[in-house]
Amino acid sequence: MVQKYQSPVRVYKHPFELIMAAYERRFPTCPLIPMFVDSDTVNEFKSEDGAVHIIERRCKLDIDAPRLLKKIAGVDYVYFVQKNSLNSRERTLHIEAHNETFSNRVIIHEHCCYTVHPENEDWTCFEQSASLDIKSFFGFESTVEKIAMKQYTSNIKKGKEIIEYYLRQLEEEGITFVPRWTPPPIASSSETTSSCKKQAASSAAVVSDAAQAEGLGGEALSSPSGPPEPAAGTPEDKLDADYIKRYLGDLTPLQESCLIRLRQWLQETHKGKIPKDEHILRFLRARDFNIDKAREIMCQSLTWRKQHQVDYILDTWSPPQVLQDYYAGGWHHHDKDGRPLYVLRLGQMDTKGLVRALGEEALLRYVLSINEEGLRRCEENTKVFGRPISSWTCLVDLEGLNMRHLWRPGVKALLRIIEVVEANYPETLGRLLILRAPRVFPVLWTLVSPFIDDNTRRKFLIYAGNDYQGPGGLLDYIDKEIIPDFLSGECMCEVPEGGLVPKSLYRTAEELENEDLKLCTETIYQSASVFKGAPHEILIQIVDASSVITWDFDVCKGDIVFNIYHSKRSPQPPKKDSLGAHSITSPGGNNVQLIDRVWQPGRDYSMVESPLICKEGESVQGSHVTRWPGFYILQWKFHSMPACAATNLPRVDDVLASLQVSSHKCKVMYYTEVIGSEDFRGSMTSLESSHSGFSQLSAATTSSSQSHCGSMVSR
């Protein structure tokens, strides 16, 4: 497997030329990098005007590896070839490096780049990327990979220190300014040389004080005054190292790389709203920075958020009065770490009454709004306290908990809420303080603990009776001034006290069932399952030609092929589905097949659009202008990987994606609408298709003049 690394943008608050002077002092060897034994220049080129300087070095490295491994490999040192291309006119330095030793077994590529800061020409930016591919190494592939990654990340950390070290060295020598390259004058070479020497000497003598007055002398990689925004000082699609440290926390080089690569992948494939960096980081942490696993759960969550319109829940949904009166929970200041504090008096809450009065869906939606509010408060506290705050603390008071809280439908609702929150709000719970746990608590804990992630469970602190008042108790985590009054504190807590929900507010089972169905399908989308050999099809009848069929669907699981067919005959709906193709589907999805097996293409029906292959996680929107009246069938069909051909091998991403499909089953969530010909004015601009994917990096464009469909597909 190829290991990749991508650094954030590192900003040096020094001019490019001074950074280059510091960088060149690393050669031929660097005492700050013990493994860098020596280097020899093997090739060098300078342009006549001195603007371009290309130098190729052979570097000798002493890798810190077990003696036995070195003996088996038969080498004491490893050699790399490094090519530096300096363009003083453009003020750029590109560094390309690859391994010479064991190049037939191990492939290492590295690219580094020093450039001028896009918003301040007196600052310098640095970026670094690398890849490691171990083909074979005497059966020690895993060991070599670990050694290589350890050595590389160690040197990444030292890179910043090395430049700073040589900058200080230059300053001690009185060099705080290096003049920029200028085209040589037309005068004779002797005059030119003399002039340049005088200019350099004059600059070195007088610039030191001026540079310090401007804040440039002796400052290496310090933070700008005032907090930077995510893209401040760097291109919009890149992250600044200072921003990461200020808003996201201290990350290792490999963790930074995972965040940058996953964020870049989203920017290239997802056409909708990009999740915030803090949210991307939460999914990475939840999967121990495994990019593939984090990407999978994040794509599922983004689809879920779109389906249930969670992004707008705080603006468009208001909790029913019953929840406002009887849900014993609310936000209450913050803990000692600056995390928002949520207080839940579960023992005082009538879970049975709330479920009977509202149903599961209203409770779930309320919990989602609480989590969305928590994300917002984390952002606010990050700005207030000047340090990254990405999670909140929850204080749960269990006084009053008894067997009525173990009512089966209530426990079922709780388990579903836990499942949804775990899947879509990972790493948002910083600490859970459970106070005054009664004897019945172990029973409840036994029921719910299997549904809680191991990482989340480690954040639980449980206190029985009044143990929370002693050493290691509540005062270790919450300031005395904000401990709620119902816990013998001094702060008045405005969280509702809960209590029994009046039975007059209870709703019948039929009402709750209808309400739950309404809430589940409140979004305009329907869901369907697609099996191998059993596509899902829907029927759309068109009376007037030139009507426009529009669609919007998400591929929730697996890869599918999307087709559109036209038929003059009306397909007979399956007997098992009395409502036909337009029935309301259940949350689990359904499967409807309309094209009869005896139908023949070209005779009974015909394809009016080219097949469109859609990958798992992609979101597809498009339209089709009908030429004829009749019946149109939209079909989602299971997509199988084509057989490998010598001249047309599938991409690595495609193979990996196919391996992730655990069964011959796909899921889609779709919405279709027909725009009548009288409402259609011929403007295809508003009907251009857009295709955004969460799992693929590809691009394609398709069009069909036969169907009068102007569509653009971009992934």
UniProtKB/TrEMBL annotation:
GO terms, biological process: innate immune response; negative regulation of RIG-I signaling pathway
Top-level lineage group: Eukaryota
Disordered as annotated region, ranges: 216-237, 569-588
UniProt domain GOLD: residue ranges: 521-674
Localization terms from the record: Cytoplasm; Golgi apparatus
Pfam families (UniProt xref): CRAL_TRIO, CRAL_TRIO_N, PRELI
Keyword Metal-binding: no
CRAL-TRIO domain mapped to chain residues: 319-495
Occurrences of domain PRELI/MSF1 (ranges): 3-175
The keyword Cytoplasm appears for this protein: yes
InterPro entries (UniProt xref): CRAL-TRIO_dom (IPR001251), CRAL-TRIO_dom_sf (IPR036865), CRAL/TRIO_N_dom (IPR011074), CRAL/TRIO_N_dom_sf (IPR036273), GOLD_dom (IPR009038), GOLD_dom_sf (IPR036598), PRELI/MSF1_dom (IPR006797), SEC14/CRAL-TRIO_domain (IPR051064)
Keywords, ordered alphabetically: Cytoplasm, Golgi apparatus, Immunity, Innate immunity, Phosphoprotein, Signal transduction inhibitor
GO molecular function: RIG-I binding
SUPFAM superfamilies: CRAL/TRIO domain, CRAL/TRIO N-terminal domain, Supernatant protein factor (SPF), C-terminal domain
Gene3D superfamilies referenced in this protein's UniProt entry, alphabetically: CRAL-TRIO lipid binding domain (3.40.525.10), GOLD domain (2.60.120.680)
GO cellular component: cytosol; Golgi apparatus
Function text: May play a role in innate immunity by inhibiting the antiviral RIG-I signaling pathway. In this pathway, functions as a negative regulator of RIGI, the cytoplasmic sensor of viral nucleic acids. Prevents the interaction of RIGI with MAVS/IPS1, an important step in signal propagation. May also regulate the SLC18A3 and SLC5A7 cholinergic transporters.
Oligomeric form and interacting partners: Interacts with RIGI (via tandem CARD domain); the interaction is direct. Interacts (via GOLD domain) with SLC18A3; the interaction is direct. Interacts with SLC5A7 (via GOLD domain); the interaction is direct.
Protein name (record): SEC14-like protein 1
Species whose genome carries this gene: Lynx pardinus
Lineage of the organism: Eukaryota, Metazoa, Chordata, Craniata, Vertebrata
